[in-house]
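Handout, section B. The chain below has 184 residues.
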Amino acid sequence: MAKKDDSSLAKQLLGLAIAQGVLAVLFGVVALFLPGLTVALLLLFFGIFVLVWGIVGLIISLSRISSYKFWWLELIFSLLAIGLAVYVLRNPVDTAAFFVVVIGLTFLVRGVIDLLQGLFDGEADGNDRAFHVIVGVLGVVAGIIALLHPVSAGVAVVWVVGLYAILYGSLMIAFAFKAQESLK
């Protein structure tokens, strides 16, 4: 009896895997062909999520004044979260540009670190040093491009996410169908 239940559960899970794959592919297609809409929706959902998070935290912190020693920390965090959410929802373009600048700075700093490691790490072998130099140069270039052209870089990030989602979804669907064949 347990074997039949396991088989039924496996088939249901495969159905979920196929659904996940299809949704990933659909998201990827939307991200590739409508990157502006994708970013706008992600920022909208992020803003709503942080707003709800802040409101819930505010209510919890105020309800625990007498029973929780650090209620005031939760209160401060919740108020900051609400402020951030309002800013994100009222200024989506500035928020998107800020995220791209953070990504650009991250790439730039990581690239410089990798470049320095590749050029001056005497303990690493030649292949490792070459890898760090290549990755470092790519990071510095990507960081500079993101900082000089944040809109284009933002679109490129959405395209990469879209391509990843399409590949991931396609592989998930293929895996699910292959696993389904082995259950028969």
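Note. The chain has six helices and no strands. Compare this with the example in section A.
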